[in-house]
Write a structure and sequence with these properties.
about 350 residues, alpha/beta, 434 Repressor (Amino-terminal Domain), Rossmann fold, 6-stranded parallel β-sheet, 6-stranded mixed β-sheet, 12 helices, about 40% helix, globular
């Protein structure tokens, strides 16, 4: 670790001058350029004063005592079948580890009881759609709550989300720009959990797809297929679309696992991607670039969503009162599954 002597040698001043500058001695008369040079050198060398080191140690000790509860609205099987949520949890765990938070309890919704949340929790992170009234009693005990992938009450809770409407719009514009007019949709219903069970709610991707296609006057309900967000459902739904006939030119598939299943059904029917059916999907999981036809897909920074949730929670624990909503951007990653129809001979 750098010392005051190291800074003095590089700054070409005495060690005493360095010490007085770093400790903000107001009685010291020193040229502004010299003061700036000393501070910049200390920063470059990573030097920290005794006060700074003591403050960091106290902060670390305080953080180590933080107890965070995490509620996941997915079973382990659901999490593995739809890997959108797995990296969110991993991001939470990595960020907690980075801050030295080891006392973290994990609850899955199907076995969760509100009585498990006691007032010794400093904060709570909820991943997925879990209605606020389902944790009403817990909210009285735990005032620091962050939602990830859901923003049920922006005036009360912090939240970390992505803009599904913008992402879906980007997909549809991309398809139209590449010459595709007749578009289909394959997706699943989202679950909104309550204290006693759950209800099916419309996926915002499906809702935006229908709205935009209606605006363009090309919406065809026969080209919309809804199941569950799994590989097997993607396979079955694409097979159903093929067997029905009158296939659209391209499909927006709401998750990469569903798209992987759909690719298998297309291959079995001796059809080609993108020549016979173009595909754009969602998530950009690692497998997306290694499928038989690499997938054009929306990249979601899921791990960063988890990390951001922890940062918001720690900020709230440290005294912030204003609820914040963070919208993490997405990115369209263009690969082979959606080649330009306009350039084909």
């Amino acid at each position: 670790m750098a010392t005051i002597k190291d800074i003095a040698l590089r700054s070409n001043v005495s060690a005493t001058t360095v010490s007085r500058v770093l400790n903000n001695d107001q009685t010291l008369s020193v040229a502004p350029d010299t003061r700036k040079r000393i501070l910049e050198t200390a920063k470059e060398l990573g030097y920290k004063t005794v006060r700074e080191r003591r403050f960091e140690q106290q902060s670390a000790e305080k953080t180590n005592q933080i107890k965070i509860g995490i509620i996941l609205c997915q079973s382990l099987e659901e999490e593995l079948n739809d890997p959108y949520f797995l990296p969110i949890r991993q991001g939470i765990e990595k960020e907690c580890l980075q801050h030295g938070i080891h006392v973290t309890e994990l609850f899955r919704i199907k076995s969760f009881q509100a009585s498990q949340l006691t007032d010794d929790f400093d904060g709570l992170i909820i991943v997925g759609r879990f209605r606020p009234e389902a944790i009403q009693n817990a909210k009285e005990k735990i005032k620091n709550i962050v939602y990830i992938d859901y923003a049920p009450d922006e005036e009360t809770f912090d939240s970390v989300v992505i803009d599904f409407e913008v992402a879906t719009s980007n997909i549809i514009h991309h398809l139209f720009q590449n010459g595709y007019q007749q578009l289909g949709f394959i997706g699943g219903k989202q679950l909104e959990h309550t204290y006693t069970g759950y209800t099916n709610v419309e996926d915002p991707r499906e809702k935006t797809f229908r709205k935009m296609m209606e605006q363009y006057g090309t919406y065809n309900p026969n080209h919309v297929f809804i199941g569950e967000f799994t590989i097997s459902n993607g396979y079955q739904l694409m097979k159903k679309a093929i067997n029905r006939g009158d296939l659209p030119e391209a499909f927006f598939i709401a998750s990469d696992p569903m798209a992987i299943g759909a690719l298998r059904a297309i291959q079995e029917a001796n059809l080609r991607v993108p020549e016979d059916i173009a595909i754009v999907s969602f998530d950009d999981i690692e497998m997306a670039q290694f499928t038989s036809t690499p997938l054009t897909t929306i990249k979601v920074y899921t791990e960063e969503m988890g990390r951001t949730g922890v940062k918001l929670l720690l900020d709230k624990i440290n005294g912030r009162n204003l609820p914040l909503k963070v919208v993490v951007p997405t990115k369209l990653v263009v690969r082979d599954s959606c080649g330009s129809k306009l350039n084909r001979v």
